[in-house]
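Key result, reporting period 2: structure in, sequence out.
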């Protein structure tokens, strides 16, 4: 089997996880990594025995690649995507797709006739609990959906690490928005959101958000997200998903999957779901989704979340932001 030649643009925390996973994947060849941070990109390139670039345009034009992974901040995600399309590459994109909905729409419109895989990294689809939940909903085991509740609460580290360059809805809650949309047979029609804006005001963002979403079939979904819990809370991330049907329910809670660690100085529930570091290597559903992208490239399979799916979730995120700003429900145009 021919290995897929791939490069990673962006060597922050998540981009480095991308590089590590592709380096370890037996069906992938990590050709290069790219970042404007010269010291960081050289360090990652040395660690994973590949080339280092500081300019993504030079990388895309110079290297013989099959695929590209784009893990830059969302402000600079669209341009490398367009260049990768011009090169005819298969593309793996981090979410969110960008800061401006109109620019995102232009990108989506541009890909309508593109016949190569574009996969967007919504990692919950590779969490075994969510995979089983989707299967049971598809098989009508809990009947018609009535209501859904999603929670994704982070510690105050989110304000310190993420708020300066992204926001709570786009970076965090979008995972649950997209997941709930993926299991509902109908489209969302209306959203209403309220926010607490205190410490994140200087970043033009939100400390906490509560939101409601109405679907065309009459079902509803509610969301809770925040970056305000103490940094010493047992779980760095406190997620949940409750699916209520007219014949049953499915409840997913937490990210530690039952593991707790108590010492003389601390009590922790380590995240065993998203990207746990085990034996010094990244694991969890992030790794599984990256590995799945390579499989999809090899066997020409459809991704769990394509660009249109991601755009639908982005439209809801931007509608929630509009609702917060205007203090009114916002109708969604499909």
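The corresponding designed sequence is given below.
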């Amino acid at each position: 089997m021919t290995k897929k030649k791939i490069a990673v643009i962006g060597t922050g925390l998540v981009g480095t996880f991308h590089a590590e996973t592709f380096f370890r994947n037996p069906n992938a060849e990590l050709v290069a990594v790219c970042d404007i941070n010269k010291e960081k990109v050289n360090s990652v390139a040395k660690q994973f025995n590949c080339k280092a670039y500081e300019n993504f345009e030079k990388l895309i034009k110079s290297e013989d690649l099959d695929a590209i992974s784009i893990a830059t901040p969302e402000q600079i995600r669209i341009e490398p995507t367009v260049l990768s399309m011009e090169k005819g590459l298969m593309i793996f994109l981090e979410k969110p797709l960008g800061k401006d909905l109109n620019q995102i729409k232009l990108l989506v419109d541009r890909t309508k006739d593109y016949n190569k895989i574009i996969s967007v990294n919504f990692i919950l689809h590779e969490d075994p609990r969510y995979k089983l939940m989707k299967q049971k909903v598809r098989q009508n085991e809990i009947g018609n959906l009535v209501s859904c509740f999603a929670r994704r609460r982070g510690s105050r580290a989110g304000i310190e690490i993420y708020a300066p360059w992204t926001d709570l809805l786009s970076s965090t809650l979008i995972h649950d928005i997209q997941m709930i949309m993926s299991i509902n047979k109908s489209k969302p029609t209306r959203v209403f959101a309220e926010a607490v804006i205190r410490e994140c005001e200087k970043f033009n963002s939100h400390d906490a958000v509560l939101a409601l979403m109405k679907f065309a079939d009459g079902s509803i979904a509610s969301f809770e997200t925040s970056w305000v819990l103490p940094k010493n809370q047992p779980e760095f991330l406190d997620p949940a998903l409750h699916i209520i049907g007219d014949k049953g329910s499915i409840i997913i809670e937490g990210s530690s999957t039952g593991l707790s660690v108590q010492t003389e100085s601390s009590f922790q529930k380590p995240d065993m779901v998203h990207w746990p570091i085990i034996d010094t290597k990244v694991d969890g559903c992030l790794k599984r989704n990256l590995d799945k992208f390579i499989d999809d490239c090899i066997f020409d399979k459809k991704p769990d979340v394509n660009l249109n799916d991601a755009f639908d979730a982005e439209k809801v995120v931007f509608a929630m932001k509009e609702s917060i700003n205007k203090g009114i429900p916002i109708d969604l145009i499909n």
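The first helix runs from residue 13 to 24. The domain at 124-274+311-331 is CATH 3.30.360.10 (Dihydrodipicolinate Reductase; domain 2). This case is discussed further under Risks and Mitigation.
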